[in-house]
Amino acid sequence: MSVTDFSSFIEWLFKKYLAFFGKGLDCDLESQYFHEMCYFWRLTRQYNATNCTDEDLQKMQFTILRENHVIEKGMSMQNPRKGFGQEKVTRLLERLSKYYDLYGRDDEEFLKYPLSTVLAYIDYSHANGVQMPEIEVAYETLRAKLPSLEIVASKAGIQTTTKKDLMSACDNGFESLLKSRHSLRYFSDEPVGQEVIEKALTLAQRTPSACNRQGWHTHVFKGEESVRLMYWQEGCRGCEEGFRQSVLVTANLKAFLSHEVFQAYIDGGLYAMNLINAFHSLGVGTIPLSCGFSLEKLKYLDQFGIPENEIPILIIAFGNVEDEYRYAVSTRKQINKTNTFHYRTTKS
Ligand SMILES: Cc1cc2nc3c(=O)[nH]c(=O)nc-3n(C[C@H](O)[C@H](O)[C@H](O)COP(=O)(O)O)c2cc1C
CA of 218: how far to CAs of 68, 99, 182, 311, 312, in Å? Predict the structure, then answer.
């Protein structure tokens, strides 16, 4: 039985169930919710990157980008453990090699960024007195197969900047704002004042939302409660104790109707991005931290006073920046990889 047939069968069963036991319920509505759920189950099953990862070029590329980022983010931490990440880099190189064999002919250029990260990692390790001959051999072996590819360590890995530069760039036009914002993995000890926090929240209220419902909500934490949230989140291991101010952005399911069951994620996501940029425009450093977790883990959020009807969208840890700080470069794709013009374009 195909997944689609199975899904249709389950829906048919559910309708039968409603016909027998659904007295007093709006059966059309219940069926619609169930239909949305089954459809999403089918999409997830088919397209989620956990399933059959290396059998699909796009899934493999996204997975490599994620594994690549773990390395660059490790280098951007305040005090990375000497020689950190060797297992992860080894695993990344194995996947890169597999990618080359499977899809090298389709999109060889893709390997540029992750290989540049590995080179930056090797340089970084050498600078810290750490040698890793096996990783270097694996890197050189793959590198030798790609002679025409430009691998430049400085276009990946980490960069350093100063608070002075941040302050002149963060509120100097939209382009400058976007280009000077980076996710930071450590902050100064000086807390962000309540006035600045409220100013950022006020700016973020300008976020557009479906029918102006403004279904978002923010929960602001500080001190030990913020640190506890970081230990729960687990996506910033080693940084927890320094993330002493944070906002959990949620979206209220009560704001949305039966035909827009995913709208909470969209409105909440737009708001969260605006809040990040609002903080940044005020010279405050931030890092978005995922709430993309299993239900079992998300349920624990009630311990932080988050009601069930609020969907967790994103945690934003924030703080004042140090006089000099590092960040992961996080190279972006060219727009031709992420855009389709649905009309003929003329190139000048
Ligand atoms: C939804 C979302 C979840 C994220 N979760 C984490 C996380 O758990 N840990 C982390 O270190 N960074 C996390 N990040 C930060 C990303 O790694 C970062 O935004 C990305 O590499 C781009 O870099 P930039 O923010 O410096 O431009 C997250 C970002 C987003 C948008």
Answer: 31, 41, 22, 11, 10
